[in-house]
Design a protein that fits this description.
It is a single chain. The chain is of the alpha/beta class. 34% of the residues lie in helices and 22% in strands. Strand 2 (21-28) and strand 3 (31-36) form a beta hairpin. It is globular, with a radius of gyration of 25 Å. The chain binds zinc ion. Residues 61, 63, 89-90, 236, 436 line the site of zinc ion. Zinc ion binds next to loops.
Protein backbone atom coordinates (compact mmCIF):
# COMPACT_ATOMS: atom_id res chain seq x y z
CA UNK A 1 0.00 0.00 0.00
CA UNK A 2 1.35 3.41 -0.92
CA UNK A 3 0.89 6.20 1.57
CA UNK A 4 -0.62 9.44 0.35
CA UNK A 5 2.04 11.48 2.12
CA UNK A 6 5.25 10.59 3.88
CA UNK A 7 7.13 13.21 5.91
CA UNK A 8 10.61 11.87 6.54
CA UNK A 9 13.57 12.42 8.83
CA UNK A 10 11.94 14.89 11.15
CA UNK A 11 12.02 15.38 14.89
CA UNK A 12 8.61 14.04 15.87
CA UNK A 13 6.98 15.96 18.69
CA UNK A 14 3.71 14.11 19.00
CA UNK A 15 1.65 16.48 21.14
CA UNK A 16 1.51 14.19 24.20
CA UNK A 17 4.44 15.89 25.90
CA UNK A 18 6.52 12.69 25.60
CA UNK A 19 10.17 13.06 24.48
CA UNK A 20 10.63 13.76 20.78
CA UNK A 21 12.40 11.33 18.48
CA UNK A 22 13.73 11.16 14.96
CA UNK A 23 11.44 9.52 12.43
CA UNK A 24 8.81 9.67 9.71
CA UNK A 25 5.08 10.30 9.68
CA UNK A 26 2.89 8.53 7.11
CA UNK A 27 -0.55 9.67 6.06
CA UNK A 28 -3.31 7.74 4.30
CA UNK A 29 -6.84 8.91 3.49
CA UNK A 30 -6.55 12.02 5.59
CA UNK A 31 -5.45 10.18 8.72
CA UNK A 32 -2.15 9.36 10.32
CA UNK A 33 -1.22 5.84 9.23
CA UNK A 34 2.04 5.17 11.07
CA UNK A 35 4.96 6.79 12.85
CA UNK A 36 8.61 5.81 13.24
CA UNK A 37 11.21 4.66 10.72
CA UNK A 38 9.04 3.94 7.67
CA UNK A 39 9.98 2.64 4.26
CA UNK A 40 6.73 2.32 2.28
CA UNK A 41 6.14 4.07 -1.02
CA UNK A 42 4.23 7.34 -1.01
CA UNK A 43 2.56 9.60 -3.55
CA UNK A 44 4.41 12.53 -2.04
CA UNK A 45 7.48 12.61 0.16
CA UNK A 46 8.57 15.66 2.19
CA UNK A 47 12.02 15.77 3.72
CA UNK A 48 11.83 17.28 7.20
CA UNK A 49 15.49 16.97 8.10
CA UNK A 50 16.30 19.41 10.90
CA UNK A 51 12.64 20.29 11.36
CA UNK A 52 9.96 19.38 13.84
CA UNK A 53 6.88 17.43 12.79
CA UNK A 54 4.04 18.19 15.19
CA UNK A 55 0.26 18.06 15.28
CA UNK A 56 -1.27 21.20 13.76
CA UNK A 57 -2.03 23.91 16.29
CA UNK A 58 -5.56 24.52 17.54
CA UNK A 59 -6.21 28.27 17.42
CA UNK A 60 -8.93 28.18 20.03
CA UNK A 61 -10.13 31.75 20.38
CA UNK A 62 -11.01 33.35 17.05
CA UNK A 63 -13.59 35.70 15.60
CA UNK A 64 -13.49 34.54 11.97
CA UNK A 65 -17.28 34.03 11.91
CA UNK A 66 -17.80 36.56 9.12
CA UNK A 67 -14.33 36.41 7.56
CA UNK A 68 -14.51 32.67 6.93
CA UNK A 69 -17.38 33.27 4.51
CA UNK A 70 -15.08 35.16 2.10
CA UNK A 71 -11.74 33.76 3.27
CA UNK A 72 -11.96 29.97 3.73
CA UNK A 73 -8.32 29.94 4.89
CA UNK A 74 -9.10 32.12 7.92
CA UNK A 75 -5.90 34.03 7.38
CA UNK A 76 -3.48 34.38 8.99
CA UNK A 77 -3.66 31.58 11.60
CA UNK A 78 -2.66 28.83 9.16
CA UNK A 79 0.61 30.64 8.33
CA UNK A 80 1.57 30.06 11.96
CA UNK A 81 0.82 26.34 11.84
CA UNK A 82 -2.82 26.39 12.95
CA UNK A 83 -4.82 23.63 11.31
CA UNK A 84 -8.04 24.23 13.25
CA UNK A 85 -9.65 27.46 14.39
CA UNK A 86 -12.54 27.87 16.80
CA UNK A 87 -15.02 30.63 16.07
CA UNK A 88 -18.16 31.99 17.71
CA UNK A 89 -16.39 33.10 20.87
CA UNK A 90 -17.49 35.69 23.44
CA UNK A 91 -21.18 35.28 22.47
CA UNK A 92 -20.66 36.76 19.01
CA UNK A 93 -21.70 34.76 15.98
CA UNK A 94 -23.48 35.29 12.67
CA UNK A 95 -26.10 32.54 13.13
CA UNK A 96 -28.86 31.93 13.90
CA UNK A 97 -30.22 35.11 12.35
CA UNK A 98 -33.45 36.42 10.89
CA UNK A 99 -33.26 38.41 7.66
CA UNK A 100 -34.31 41.70 9.28
CA UNK A 101 -31.52 41.35 11.89
CA UNK A 102 -28.58 40.94 9.50
CA UNK A 103 -27.33 44.50 9.92
CA UNK A 104 -27.87 44.58 13.66
CA UNK A 105 -26.03 41.32 14.24
CA UNK A 106 -22.95 42.28 12.25
CA UNK A 107 -22.95 45.77 13.72
CA UNK A 108 -22.39 44.16 17.13
CA UNK A 109 -19.57 42.03 15.75
CA UNK A 110 -18.15 45.16 14.15
CA UNK A 111 -18.46 47.19 17.33
CA UNK A 112 -17.12 44.67 19.85
CA UNK A 113 -14.42 43.04 17.75
CA UNK A 114 -13.38 46.11 15.76
CA UNK A 115 -14.04 44.86 12.24
CA UNK A 116 -15.02 47.70 9.88
CA UNK A 117 -18.77 47.66 9.18
CA UNK A 118 -18.40 48.31 5.44
CA UNK A 119 -16.14 45.24 5.18
CA UNK A 120 -18.77 43.06 6.86
CA UNK A 121 -21.60 44.53 4.76
CA UNK A 122 -19.69 43.81 1.56
CA UNK A 123 -18.34 40.43 2.61
CA UNK A 124 -21.07 38.39 4.34
CA UNK A 125 -23.32 36.51 1.87
CA UNK A 126 -26.11 35.63 4.36
CA UNK A 127 -27.10 32.36 2.71
CA UNK A 128 -28.25 30.79 5.99
CA UNK A 129 -30.68 31.37 8.81
CA UNK A 130 -30.13 28.56 11.32
CA UNK A 131 -26.86 27.52 12.93
CA UNK A 132 -26.83 24.09 11.26
CA UNK A 133 -27.32 25.83 7.89
CA UNK A 134 -24.41 28.15 8.65
CA UNK A 135 -22.13 25.18 9.45
CA UNK A 136 -23.22 23.47 6.23
CA UNK A 137 -22.42 26.59 4.18
CA UNK A 138 -18.93 26.70 5.73
CA UNK A 139 -18.39 22.99 5.11
CA UNK A 140 -18.63 23.52 1.33
CA UNK A 141 -15.25 25.22 1.16
CA UNK A 142 -12.67 25.49 3.92
CA UNK A 143 -8.90 25.78 3.97
CA UNK A 144 -8.53 25.09 7.68
CA UNK A 145 -10.81 23.11 9.97
CA UNK A 146 -13.36 25.26 11.73
CA UNK A 147 -15.11 24.45 15.00
CA UNK A 148 -18.05 26.71 15.80
CA UNK A 149 -19.54 27.75 19.11
CA UNK A 150 -23.15 28.98 19.34
CA UNK A 151 -22.98 32.64 20.36
CA UNK A 152 -25.44 33.70 23.04
CA UNK A 153 -25.72 37.23 21.60
CA UNK A 154 -26.90 35.87 18.25
CA UNK A 155 -29.15 33.36 19.99
CA UNK A 156 -30.82 35.93 22.24
CA UNK A 157 -31.35 38.40 19.40
CA UNK A 158 -32.86 35.57 17.35
CA UNK A 159 -35.27 34.63 20.13
CA UNK A 160 -36.17 38.07 21.47
CA UNK A 161 -35.41 40.74 18.85
CA UNK A 162 -35.10 44.27 20.29
CA UNK A 163 -36.09 43.01 23.75
CA UNK A 164 -32.86 41.02 23.91
CA UNK A 165 -31.19 44.17 25.25
CA UNK A 166 -34.06 45.28 27.44
CA UNK A 167 -35.46 42.55 29.68
CA UNK A 168 -35.39 38.97 30.94
CA UNK A 169 -36.64 36.26 28.60
CA UNK A 170 -40.17 34.89 28.93
CA UNK A 171 -40.68 31.17 29.49
CA UNK A 172 -41.46 30.79 25.78
CA UNK A 173 -38.37 32.74 24.64
CA UNK A 174 -36.15 30.70 26.91
CA UNK A 175 -37.65 27.49 25.56
CA UNK A 176 -36.98 28.74 22.03
CA UNK A 177 -33.33 29.45 22.91
CA UNK A 178 -32.91 26.04 24.51
CA UNK A 179 -34.39 24.44 21.42
CA UNK A 180 -31.95 26.27 19.14
CA UNK A 181 -29.02 25.22 21.35
CA UNK A 182 -30.22 21.62 21.19
CA UNK A 183 -30.66 21.69 17.42
CA UNK A 184 -27.22 23.31 16.88
CA UNK A 185 -25.35 20.99 19.20
CA UNK A 186 -27.06 17.98 17.63
CA UNK A 187 -25.81 19.29 14.28
CA UNK A 188 -22.28 19.39 15.67
CA UNK A 189 -21.66 22.81 17.26
CA UNK A 190 -18.74 22.56 19.67
CA UNK A 191 -20.64 24.34 22.40
CA UNK A 192 -22.00 27.63 23.58
CA UNK A 193 -20.32 30.98 24.13
CA UNK A 194 -21.46 33.54 26.71
CA UNK A 195 -20.31 36.97 27.73
CA UNK A 196 -20.02 38.60 31.11
CA UNK A 197 -18.01 41.45 29.66
CA UNK A 198 -19.86 44.54 30.86
CA UNK A 199 -18.03 46.89 28.52
CA UNK A 200 -19.24 45.25 25.32
CA UNK A 201 -21.76 47.69 23.88
CA UNK A 202 -23.51 48.04 20.54
CA UNK A 203 -23.44 51.19 18.38
CA UNK A 204 -26.19 52.79 20.46
CA UNK A 205 -24.24 52.18 23.65
CA UNK A 206 -26.51 49.35 24.87
CA UNK A 207 -24.99 46.20 26.37
CA UNK A 208 -24.87 43.36 23.85
CA UNK A 209 -27.65 40.79 24.43
CA UNK A 210 -25.42 38.14 26.05
CA UNK A 211 -23.94 40.57 28.57
CA UNK A 212 -27.42 41.88 29.29
CA UNK A 213 -28.88 38.42 29.99
CA UNK A 214 -29.57 37.66 33.68
CA UNK A 215 -27.67 34.78 35.27
CA UNK A 216 -30.52 32.22 35.49
CA UNK A 217 -30.67 32.26 31.69
CA UNK A 218 -26.99 31.30 31.49
CA UNK A 219 -27.66 28.32 33.76
CA UNK A 220 -30.70 27.27 31.73
CA UNK A 221 -28.64 27.28 28.51
CA UNK A 222 -25.61 25.60 30.13
CA UNK A 223 -27.85 22.86 31.49
CA UNK A 224 -29.12 22.20 27.97
CA UNK A 225 -25.56 21.18 27.09
CA UNK A 226 -25.51 19.11 30.26
CA UNK A 227 -28.66 17.26 29.16
CA UNK A 228 -27.08 16.52 25.77
CA UNK A 229 -23.86 15.44 27.47
CA UNK A 230 -21.59 17.23 25.03
CA UNK A 231 -20.11 20.62 24.22
CA UNK A 232 -18.06 23.25 25.99
CA UNK A 233 -18.99 26.64 27.39
CA UNK A 234 -16.82 29.62 26.59
CA UNK A 235 -17.25 32.98 28.27
CA UNK A 236 -15.88 36.39 27.48
CA UNK A 237 -15.21 38.53 30.54
CA UNK A 238 -15.23 35.55 32.90
CA UNK A 239 -12.49 36.53 35.31
CA UNK A 240 -14.35 39.18 37.29
CA UNK A 241 -17.48 37.10 38.01
CA UNK A 242 -15.36 34.01 38.71
CA UNK A 243 -13.25 35.79 41.29
CA UNK A 244 -16.32 37.51 42.72
CA UNK A 245 -18.71 34.60 43.21
CA UNK A 246 -17.35 31.66 41.22
CA UNK A 247 -19.83 32.04 38.38
CA UNK A 248 -17.67 30.09 35.92
CA UNK A 249 -17.15 27.22 38.36
CA UNK A 250 -20.85 27.17 39.20
CA UNK A 251 -21.80 27.01 35.52
CA UNK A 252 -19.41 24.11 35.09
CA UNK A 253 -20.74 22.32 38.17
CA UNK A 254 -24.37 22.82 37.16
CA UNK A 255 -23.90 21.63 33.58
CA UNK A 256 -21.12 19.10 34.02
CA UNK A 257 -19.43 20.72 31.01
CA UNK A 258 -16.03 22.40 30.78
CA UNK A 259 -16.01 26.19 30.98
CA UNK A 260 -13.19 28.14 29.34
CA UNK A 261 -13.15 31.83 30.05
CA UNK A 262 -11.16 34.99 29.30
CA UNK A 263 -8.50 35.65 30.67
CA UNK A 264 -5.57 35.12 33.00
CA UNK A 265 -2.85 37.66 32.31
CA UNK A 266 0.04 39.37 34.04
CA UNK A 267 -0.16 43.09 34.58
CA UNK A 268 2.80 44.98 36.04
CA UNK A 269 0.40 47.47 37.61
CA UNK A 270 -1.23 44.72 39.72
CA UNK A 271 1.71 42.36 40.09
CA UNK A 272 0.15 39.69 42.33
CA UNK A 273 -3.25 39.44 40.69
CA UNK A 274 -2.32 36.65 38.25
CA UNK A 275 -1.00 34.54 41.10
CA UNK A 276 -4.15 34.93 43.19
CA UNK A 277 -6.20 34.07 40.13
CA UNK A 278 -4.14 30.97 39.35
CA UNK A 279 -4.34 29.74 42.96
CA UNK A 280 -8.08 30.28 42.86
CA UNK A 281 -8.44 28.22 39.66
CA UNK A 282 -6.30 25.41 41.04
CA UNK A 283 -8.43 25.17 44.12
CA UNK A 284 -11.65 25.11 42.12
CA UNK A 285 -10.28 22.40 39.79
CA UNK A 286 -9.16 20.31 42.76
CA UNK A 287 -12.76 20.35 43.96
CA UNK A 288 -13.66 18.69 40.66
CA UNK A 289 -14.84 21.68 38.64
CA UNK A 290 -13.77 22.26 35.08
CA UNK A 291 -13.58 26.04 34.75
CA UNK A 292 -10.26 27.28 33.43
CA UNK A 293 -9.01 30.57 32.01
CA UNK A 294 -7.39 31.16 28.65
CA UNK A 295 -3.96 32.76 28.55
CA UNK A 296 -1.88 34.22 25.77
CA UNK A 297 1.86 33.97 25.10
CA UNK A 298 1.62 37.44 23.53
CA UNK A 299 2.82 40.46 25.44
CA UNK A 300 1.07 43.78 25.16
CA UNK A 301 3.63 46.37 24.19
CA UNK A 302 2.78 50.04 23.72
CA UNK A 303 5.05 52.10 21.47
CA UNK A 304 5.25 55.86 21.84
CA UNK A 305 7.34 58.97 21.56
CA UNK A 306 7.07 61.79 24.06
CA UNK A 307 5.35 63.88 21.41
CA UNK A 308 2.22 62.01 22.40
CA UNK A 309 2.20 59.48 25.19
CA UNK A 310 -0.79 57.91 26.94
CA UNK A 311 1.21 56.36 29.77
CA UNK A 312 1.88 59.53 31.77
CA UNK A 313 -1.26 61.44 30.84
CA UNK A 314 -2.96 60.76 34.16
CA UNK A 315 -0.26 62.62 36.07
CA UNK A 316 -1.27 66.31 36.34
CA UNK A 317 2.07 68.04 35.64
CA UNK A 318 2.90 65.60 32.86
CA UNK A 319 -0.57 66.08 31.41
CA UNK A 320 -0.09 69.83 31.20
CA UNK A 321 3.20 69.39 29.37
CA UNK A 322 1.66 66.85 26.99
CA UNK A 323 -0.84 69.47 25.87
CA UNK A 324 1.77 72.11 25.04
CA UNK A 325 3.60 72.65 21.72
CA UNK A 326 6.72 70.60 20.97
CA UNK A 327 9.29 73.28 21.83
CA UNK A 328 7.59 73.89 25.20
CA UNK A 329 7.63 70.16 25.89
CA UNK A 330 11.38 69.99 25.26
CA UNK A 331 11.96 72.98 27.52
CA UNK A 332 9.76 71.56 30.29
CA UNK A 333 11.32 68.09 30.25
CA UNK A 334 14.76 69.72 30.46
CA UNK A 335 13.81 72.02 33.36
CA UNK A 336 15.44 70.57 36.49
CA UNK A 337 13.21 72.52 38.88
CA UNK A 338 10.08 71.15 37.19
CA UNK A 339 11.62 67.69 37.15
CA UNK A 340 11.25 67.46 40.92
CA UNK A 341 7.49 67.62 40.44
CA UNK A 342 7.57 65.15 37.57
CA UNK A 343 9.56 62.77 39.73
CA UNK A 344 7.16 63.06 42.63
CA UNK A 345 4.21 62.19 40.41
CA UNK A 346 5.90 59.37 38.55
CA UNK A 347 7.00 57.69 41.78
CA UNK A 348 3.71 58.17 43.68
CA UNK A 349 1.93 55.01 44.93
CA UNK A 350 -0.07 53.19 42.22
CA UNK A 351 -3.80 53.82 42.02
CA UNK A 352 -6.37 51.31 40.73
CA UNK A 353 -6.35 52.91 37.27
CA UNK A 354 -2.65 53.74 36.99
CA UNK A 355 -1.31 53.28 33.50
CA UNK A 356 2.27 53.46 34.70
CA UNK A 357 3.63 50.59 36.79
CA UNK A 358 6.80 52.41 37.94
CA UNK A 359 8.92 49.80 36.20
CA UNK A 360 11.88 51.37 34.37
CA UNK A 361 13.08 47.88 33.49
CA UNK A 362 9.99 47.47 31.26
CA UNK A 363 10.52 50.73 29.37
CA UNK A 364 12.82 50.13 26.40
CA UNK A 365 14.52 52.47 23.97
CA UNK A 366 13.22 50.82 20.81
CA UNK A 367 14.59 53.29 18.22
CA UNK A 368 17.05 55.98 19.28
CA UNK A 369 16.76 58.98 16.94
CA UNK A 370 20.42 60.06 16.85
CA UNK A 371 23.28 58.02 15.37
CA UNK A 372 25.38 58.53 18.52
CA UNK A 373 22.68 56.87 20.64
CA UNK A 374 22.33 53.67 18.60
CA UNK A 375 24.07 51.75 21.37
CA UNK A 376 20.97 52.28 23.53
CA UNK A 377 18.72 50.40 21.11
CA UNK A 378 16.56 47.76 22.87
CA UNK A 379 18.06 48.57 26.27
CA UNK A 380 15.77 49.36 29.17
CA UNK A 381 15.93 52.68 30.96
CA UNK A 382 16.80 50.77 34.15
CA UNK A 383 19.71 49.04 32.41
CA UNK A 384 21.08 52.29 30.99
CA UNK A 385 20.69 54.03 34.34
CA UNK A 386 22.56 51.24 36.15
CA UNK A 387 25.40 51.28 33.62
CA UNK A 388 25.72 55.08 33.84
CA UNK A 389 25.07 55.19 37.61
CA UNK A 390 22.35 57.75 37.08
CA UNK A 391 18.75 58.09 38.09
CA UNK A 392 16.32 56.41 35.63
CA UNK A 393 14.01 59.42 35.32
CA UNK A 394 17.00 61.64 34.47
CA UNK A 395 18.18 59.12 31.87
CA UNK A 396 14.71 58.98 30.35
CA UNK A 397 14.00 62.71 30.21
CA UNK A 398 17.53 63.71 29.21
CA UNK A 399 17.26 61.36 26.24
CA UNK A 400 13.84 62.77 25.34
CA UNK A 401 15.30 66.30 25.38
CA UNK A 402 18.52 65.37 23.57
CA UNK A 403 16.61 63.66 20.77
CA UNK A 404 13.95 66.39 20.66
CA UNK A 405 11.03 64.00 21.41
CA UNK A 406 11.93 61.69 18.51
CA UNK A 407 13.04 58.62 20.50
CA UNK A 408 10.69 55.66 20.02
CA UNK A 409 10.03 53.88 23.32
CA UNK A 410 8.37 50.52 23.94
CA UNK A 411 6.62 49.80 27.20
CA UNK A 412 5.58 46.20 27.88
CA UNK A 413 3.58 46.04 31.10
CA UNK A 414 1.42 42.98 30.26
CA UNK A 415 2.56 39.39 29.92
CA UNK A 416 6.25 40.26 30.03
CA UNK A 417 7.17 38.88 33.47
CA UNK A 418 9.12 35.67 33.07
CA UNK A 419 8.00 34.09 36.34
CA UNK A 420 4.31 34.80 35.72
CA UNK A 421 4.49 33.63 32.12
CA UNK A 422 6.31 30.45 33.09
CA UNK A 423 3.69 29.64 35.66
CA UNK A 424 0.56 30.22 33.69
CA UNK A 425 1.77 29.11 30.27
CA UNK A 426 2.83 25.78 31.78
CA UNK A 427 -0.05 25.33 34.24
CA UNK A 428 -2.47 22.43 33.64
CA UNK A 429 -5.18 24.78 34.94
CA UNK A 430 -5.01 27.17 32.00
CA UNK A 431 -5.53 26.85 28.25
CA UNK A 432 -3.04 28.57 25.94
CA UNK A 433 -4.45 30.46 22.97
CA UNK A 434 -6.44 33.65 22.70
CA UNK A 435 -5.25 34.80 19.28
CA UNK A 436 -8.46 36.77 18.63
CA UNK A 437 -7.91 35.91 14.94
CA UNK A 438 -10.24 37.92 12.74
CA UNK A 439 -10.82 40.62 15.38
CA UNK A 440 -9.34 44.10 15.89
CA UNK A 441 -8.10 43.77 12.33
CA UNK A 442 -6.79 47.32 12.02
CA UNK A 443 -5.05 47.38 15.40
CA UNK A 444 -2.92 44.26 15.60
CA UNK A 445 -2.57 40.69 14.40
CA UNK A 446 -2.04 38.28 17.30
CA UNK A 447 -2.38 34.96 15.49
CA UNK A 448 1.38 34.54 15.91
CA UNK A 449 0.80 33.47 19.53
CA UNK A 450 1.91 29.93 18.60
CA UNK A 451 5.10 30.95 16.82
CA UNK A 452 5.85 33.38 19.64
CA UNK A 453 5.38 30.60 22.19
CA UNK A 454 7.89 28.43 20.29
CA UNK A 455 10.33 31.14 19.22
CA UNK A 456 10.37 33.48 22.19
CA UNK A 457 9.21 31.62 25.29
CA UNK A 458 10.75 28.26 24.41
CA UNK A 459 13.83 29.01 22.28
CA UNK A 460 14.90 32.40 23.66
CA UNK A 461 13.65 32.32 27.24
CA UNK A 462 13.67 28.55 27.83
CA UNK A 463 10.61 28.52 30.06
CA UNK A 464 9.57 24.99 29.10
CA UNK A 465 10.75 22.11 26.89
CA UNK A 466 9.62 22.15 23.26
CA UNK A 467 7.59 18.97 23.81
CA UNK A 468 5.62 20.66 26.57
CA UNK A 469 4.98 23.76 24.47
CA UNK A 470 3.72 21.69 21.54
CA UNK A 471 1.39 19.83 23.84
CA UNK A 472 -0.02 23.14 25.10
CA UNK A 473 -0.70 24.28 21.51
CA UNK A 474 -2.19 20.98 20.36
CA UNK A 475 -3.43 18.19 22.62
CA UNK A 476 -4.33 20.41 25.58
CA UNK A 477 -6.24 22.85 23.43
CA UNK A 478 -8.00 20.11 21.45
CA UNK A 479 -9.02 18.35 24.64
CA UNK A 480 -10.25 21.54 26.26
CA UNK A 481 -12.61 22.15 23.35
CA UNK A 482 -13.78 18.56 22.93
CA UNK A 483 -11.91 17.86 19.69
CA UNK A 484 -11.10 14.20 20.24
CA UNK A 485 -9.57 13.15 16.92
CA UNK A 486 -6.91 15.85 16.57
CA UNK A 487 -4.04 17.37 18.51
CA UNK A 488 -1.93 14.19 18.72
CA UNK A 489 0.22 12.25 16.31
CA UNK A 490 -1.17 8.74 16.66
CA UNK A 491 -2.32 6.28 14.02
CA UNK A 492 -6.00 6.89 13.33
CA UNK A 493 -5.95 10.56 14.29
CA UNK A 494 -6.71 13.17 11.62
CA UNK A 495 -3.58 14.10 9.68
CA UNK A 496 -3.36 17.74 10.75
CA UNK A 497 0.34 18.53 10.86
CA UNK A 498 2.83 21.34 11.00
CA UNK A 499 6.46 21.14 9.97
CA UNK A 500 8.56 23.91 11.49
CA UNK A 501 12.16 24.82 12.17
CA UNK A 502 12.68 25.15 15.94
CA UNK A 503 15.76 27.33 15.36
CA UNK A 504 14.00 30.02 13.33
CA UNK A 505 10.28 29.83 14.09
CA UNK A 506 8.84 33.22 15.09
CA UNK A 507 6.15 35.69 14.11
CA UNK A 508 7.21 38.31 11.58
CA UNK A 509 6.77 42.04 12.00
CA UNK A 510 3.24 43.31 11.49
CA UNK A 511 2.42 45.13 8.27
CA UNK A 512 -0.59 46.69 6.58
CA UNK A 513 -2.36 44.89 3.69
CA UNK A 514 -5.35 45.85 1.57
CA UNK A 515 -7.11 42.51 1.11
CA UNK A 516 -10.50 42.83 2.78
CA UNK A 517 -13.87 43.13 0.99
CA UNK A 518 -14.73 46.66 -0.13
CA UNK A 519 -10.99 47.32 -0.48
CA UNK A 520 -10.60 47.33 3.29
CA UNK A 521 -7.22 47.09 4.98
CA UNK A 522 -5.94 45.20 8.00
CA UNK A 523 -2.78 44.33 9.90
CA UNK A 524 -1.02 41.14 8.88
CA UNK A 525 1.65 39.08 10.63
CA UNK A 526 3.17 36.10 8.82
CA UNK A 527 5.70 33.66 10.26
CA UNK A 528 9.30 32.60 9.85
CA UNK A 529 10.26 28.96 10.10
CA UNK A 530 6.87 27.37 9.39
CA UNK A 531 7.43 25.20 6.32
CA UNK A 532 4.27 23.13 5.93
CA UNK A 533 0.76 23.31 7.27
CA UNK A 534 -1.03 20.05 6.44
CA UNK A 535 -4.76 19.61 6.91
CA UNK A 536 -6.56 16.29 6.72
CA UNK A 537 -3.51 14.93 4.90
CA UNK A 538 -3.30 17.71 2.29
CA UNK A 539 -0.69 20.45 2.21
CA UNK A 540 -2.44 23.80 2.66
CA UNK A 541 0.55 26.13 3.13
CA UNK A 542 4.00 25.39 1.76
CA UNK A 543 6.81 27.80 2.68
CA UNK A 544 4.39 30.63 3.25
CA UNK A 545 2.29 30.06 0.10
CA UNK A 546 -1.21 28.64 -0.19
CA UNK A 547 -1.20 25.57 -2.42
CA UNK A 548 -4.76 26.18 -3.59
CA UNK A 549 -6.09 23.20 -1.63
CA UNK A 550 -9.25 23.48 0.48
CA UNK A 551 -9.02 20.37 2.68
CA UNK A 552 -10.63 21.83 5.81
CA UNK A 553 -13.94 20.82 7.27
CA UNK A 554 -16.28 21.82 10.03
CA UNK A 555 -15.27 20.14 13.29
CA UNK A 556 -18.34 18.64 14.92
CA UNK A 557 -18.68 17.43 18.49
CA UNK A 558 -18.21 13.85 19.71
CA UNK A 559 -21.93 13.23 20.19
CA UNK A 560 -22.62 14.10 16.53
CA UNK A 561 -20.00 11.59 15.36
CA UNK A 562 -21.20 8.90 17.75
CA UNK A 563 -24.81 9.24 16.57
CA UNK A 564 -23.76 9.16 12.91
CA UNK A 565 -21.62 6.08 13.47
CA UNK A 566 -24.51 4.32 15.21
CA UNK A 567 -27.00 5.15 12.43
ZN1 LIG B 1 -13.15 37.02 22.05
Amino acid sequence: MAYDLLIKNGRIVDGSGMPSYRGDVAVSRGKIAELGRLSGAAKRVIDADGKVIAPGFIDNHCHYDAQVTWDPLCTFSCYHGATSVIIGNCSLAVAPVRTHDHEKLISMLSQVEAIPMDVLQAGVPWNWESFPQYMDVLDRKLGVNVGALMGHTALRLYAMGEASQERAATEGELELMRGVVRESVEAGALGLSLSRNMSHFDVQGKLIPASFAPEPELFALAETLGELGTGVIQSGGGTTPELKDRLMSRLSAASGRRVIYNTIAENARAPMRWKQHLDFVEESCREGNRAVPLCSPNSVVGRFTMKNCQTFRQLPTWFEIMNSPAEDKIRAYGDLELRKKLREEVMAPLGPDSRWAKRWDLLLVEEPALPRNQGLKNKSIAEIAAAQRRDPLDVFLDLVVEEELNTLFALGQNNTDREAMTQFLTSPYTVVGLSDGGAHVQFHCQVGYSTRMLGYWVRERGIMPLEHAVRRLTFDSATAFGIYDRGLLQPGMAADLVVFDPDTVQPRKQEMVHDLPNNGWRVRALADGVHYTVINGEVLIEDGKHTGATPGRVLRNARYHALRAAA
